[in-house]
Amino acid sequence: MAYEMEEIRISQEIFYYLLEHHELHEEQERLLYKAYTEHEEIQYLVKSQGEIAHSNIERYGTIIYLIPKEDNDFLGFSKAQLKNALCKSSGTDRDYYLSQFVILTLLVEFYDGQGSSSKARDYIRVGELQNCISSRLKEGAQHMNQEEEEKAGIAFSHMLQAYEALKSDDKGSRAKTTKEGFLHNILVFLEKQGLVEYVEQDEMVKTTKKLDHFMDWNLLNQNNYKRVLMILGGMQDEQD
Q1: Per-residue model confidence as pLDDT tens digits over 41-80
Q2: Contact (Cβ atoms closer than 8 angstroms) between residue 183 and residue 88
Q3: Which residue among 72, 105, 212, 233 is least enclosed by CB atoms within 10 Å?
Q4: Residue 110 in contact with residue 220, Cβ under 8 Å?
Q5: Do 46 and 59 touch, CB atoms closer than 8 A?
Q6: What's the rounded Cα separation, in Å, for the pair 79 and 96?
Q7: What pTM was computed for the model?
Q8: CA-based diameter of the chain, in Å?
Q9: Is 98 exposed, middle or buried (0-12, 13-18, 19+ CB in 10 A)?
């Protein structure tokens, strides 16, 4: 298929904008947004450039997002980079997987996968989130043996050990070696990615429109949601 030079130029302009800002809003860049949504050729060219950059280009509502694929260490984060950002300097794989479990727990608390929108609440207190993490880790370690953990792909016992190895500090410590600091650093990281709003003075976490869109349109179909609940031990609660 042959493309006009103007179509190629506009598609490159859109893709460069996405590389720089990671998202394109209709109200902020109306002409680029209109070119992408109203011209199939331009949209195809932008998506093709996304594929070459090992990323997906997705439109949710009135926003176009550039979403790096899971193993895209250039536009996204490698495991080593995430471990360095989220865990203490001597962090092990146990600490890394604990950080991912914290994020997973946060998502489950906000999104229930039901109705026209998966969002179940507007905010969560940091203390409540910390209690949820501790409770789910202990429940998982108590109810799953090693064989079941391997089948589910999640080692509750190892993550619980990593969590209990963190100190407790009621003075608001921000050190990654404390439970409070570990959670604080994860929330700050998520806020920098535009996924949550972390109101430190109120000890409160809210989700952003970006995360709401991604959960509703991309991640939370019923199959994925039930698998997450099963991993976190929530299937029994749902059936009771």
Answers
A1: 999 999 999 999 989 998 988 999 998 887 776 777 878 8
A2: no
A3: 72
A4: no
A5: no
A6: 8
A7: 0.74
A8: 65
A9: buried
